[in-house]
């Protein structure tokens, strides 16, 4: 990690998804070859931590939906792409809900035209114009850093490994201690979906 981790624990999705103390979390997110945007999230030993399943976009349901499940198949986060949003915004809700009281965060582009991806993340209780987290891509667009707000504090790093005919697309992720890695996974699966 380029910068030290923050001195506080940040439980946004669930406290169980925070690596305590000085331990960072390494994850591998694999995009499945099946139709849709489905992902499997494992630790470096190959243990499944999360799965992500997409719903089909139809005339009846014109929005894109992604569902983040824990290793036991329990729904943790429902990600919903905003309908016709020019700023590519996504909303995240607890479980399978879409109720305003279950809103966790909103993720949107920082500006309409971008040479490289810059996303702002606003937690549900944020009533200011200042984002809680920021995601910035490198110039080549195959890696991203997650920052706390507008600071220089990097709390997660994401590197994309392109797939081939024989291998699947993968994201190698390192999350700082005391940061909710379920939140980071939720952000990653909306990056190129």
Automatic annotation (TrEMBL):
InterPro entries: LOR (IPR007612), LOR_sf (IPR038595), Tubby-like_C (IPR025659). This is Protein LURP-one-related 15-like. PANTHER family: PROTEIN LURP-ONE-RELATED 1-RELATED (PTHR31087:SF160), PTHR31087. It comes from Abrus precatorius (Indian licorice). The gene is LOC113862457. It comes from the Eukaryota. Belongs to the LOR family. The lineage of its organism: Eukaryota, Viridiplantae, Streptophyta, Embryophyta, Tracheophyta. It holds the Pfam family LOR.
